[in-house]
Amino acid sequence: MNIEFKNLDIGGVRIEIPIIQGGMGVRVSTSSLASAVSNEGGLGVIASVGLGEEGDVTAGDYAARSRSSLVNTIRKTRTMTDKPFGVNIMCALTNYEDLVDVVQQESVDVIISGAGLPLKLPSLIKNSRTKLVPIVSSSRAAQLICHVWKKRYKRLPDAIIVEGPLAGGHLGYSMEELKDSKRVFLDNILKEVLLVVKGFESPVCKIPVIAAGGIFDREDIARVVSLGASAVQMATRFVCTHECDVADGYKEAYLSATKEDIAIIQSPVGMPGRVIRNEFVKRIVRGERIDFGCEYKCLVTCDSQKVNYCIANALFNAARGQMDKGFAMCGSNAYRVKKIISVKELFAELVE
Question: Is there a single domain that holds both residue 185 and residue 60?
Fold first, then answer.
């Protein structure tokens, strides 16, 4: 299927190639990956969650480390690219407002926000530069965000990301919905969100809709663009690139995974999460309590007295390559990744 790659306009921020690199938390997408994607013409994205975990050289408690680490990561990214880039901030974070404040003070081009409804996000922005892009999993969520933002703040999203059920990481669907692939399908949700957006747009206000979740190759991009998407967000494909900062053991989990290894677990975040099954995953699925002392208090929805493992610890260990103490999050197509390539090579494959 032929596809014409058009520039993506996010509230006046021009992205040459309509590919957004999804934010992957706990040090998977940081300066190296985000800058490389932006340099190729896409929109690189730093994930704010987990930048200030245990072992960070910055001083202070978790919130202070998180803030300091995010500032440092943003500034480092700016030394590596002069192109636009974004920061992903999960609504479920206890220090959500503080991290948003960092990003708007640093005048980053784009904030992408999901894992909840970012209904108050516009009230936290004091500059005129930073563009706001919520992530939704349904037309109902898109309708609510547009309605609330327009009524309370007299503004609309600069773009909306529609994340389908085949995405990686935390998913905005119930376990029942994820088991019924015929009932929940990205293409159907995309069409519904496009109709919602059309009701809020005007000749002077366009809201690009970006498709995410299971987008793997050029054919997938062509399919969703033909349905009306202005761009795609991809995360899984960027893990096995030279520029991704995770340890080799994390990438090897992708390279050695089979289709049967891709599993959905219940996360302490309160949402299902898609991961690559390993011995650690088998232990937590059995209900084993993995001993931990919660120093982070990072998630509003996590009750450390009730959950059987700390997801911050698990993901931090995995990023360092300690896969026996954690797991890799992934999209449904992770098993299709067969080699480690550069971001430049990946863009050539997807675009040229």
Answer: yes
Name the band, by pLDDT with cuts 50, 70 and 90, for residue 102.
Answer: very high
Q: Would strands 272-276 and 231-234 be described as parallel, antiparallel, or unpaired?
A: unpaired
State pLDDT tens for residues 52-76. Answer: 654 444 445 777 888 899 999 999 9
Domain that holds residue 116: 8-246+337-351
pTM, full prediction: 0.93
Q: Tell me whether residue 42 is in a domain.
A: yes
Closest C-alpha to 230, from 3, 36, 34, 2:
3
**Does residue 53 lie within any of the structural domains?**
yes
Q: How many Å apart are CA 66 and CA 27, to the nearest integer?
A: 12
Among 89-93, 191-195, 297-301, name the most confident range: 191-195
Residue 1 resides in a domain: no
Q: Which of left, alpha, beta for 169 (phi over 0: left; psi -120 to 50: alpha)?
A: left
Indicate if 177 and 268 belong to the same structural domain. no
**How distant is the alpha carbon of residue 96 from its chain centre?**
15
User: Are the C-beta atoms of 311 and 269 separated by less than 8 Å?
Assistant: yes
Domains identified in the chain, total number: 2
Question: 44 - beta bridge partners?
Answer: 85
* Residue 230 forms part of a structural domain: yes
